[in-house]
Amino acid sequence: MNLAPSLPADFLAELERKHFWWEPIGDAPRSASRIVAQAMSFANFAEIRQLETVLGPEALTDVMLAAQPGWIDPRSWELWRGRLQRATGRPIPEEPPQRTFDADDL
After folding, report:
1. Which residue did the predictor score with more confidence, 1 or 35?
2. 5-56 pLDDT, tens per residue?
3. d(CA 80, CA 78)
4. DSSP alpha helices (H): ranges in 1-96?
5. How many Cβ atoms are within 10 Å of 88's Cβ, its own excluded?
6. Which of 53, 61, 46, 51 lies closest to 15 in space, CA to CA?
7. How would you classify residue 99: left for phi > 0, otherwise alpha for psi between -120 and 50, otherwise beta?
């Protein structure tokens, strides 16, 4: 999923500046989906409404469904899940993606 064309660059830059306090790893910039997912985890209510207005519920649902483990914390997942399932009617898993480790791989 590529959110970048649908997002105003200044809005995305503002989200990244506010919600990331560490430098990206490597030379590649953060993806728009990663930035939005981080904002979804740390947003206050005014920012939640702004995300819903700028992106819309379909794009936010897409971000949730494409999220990697650790991108959205469980408490925020539940909040967004309730809001977005109601707005879109799309199913969203009850739990955010989790990291799994197999002892045989270690």
Report:
1. 35
2. 567 788 888 888 888 877 777 887 788 999 999 999 999 999 999 999 999 9
3. 6
4. 9-19, 32-42, 45-55, 57-66, 74-88
5. 15
6. 51
7. beta
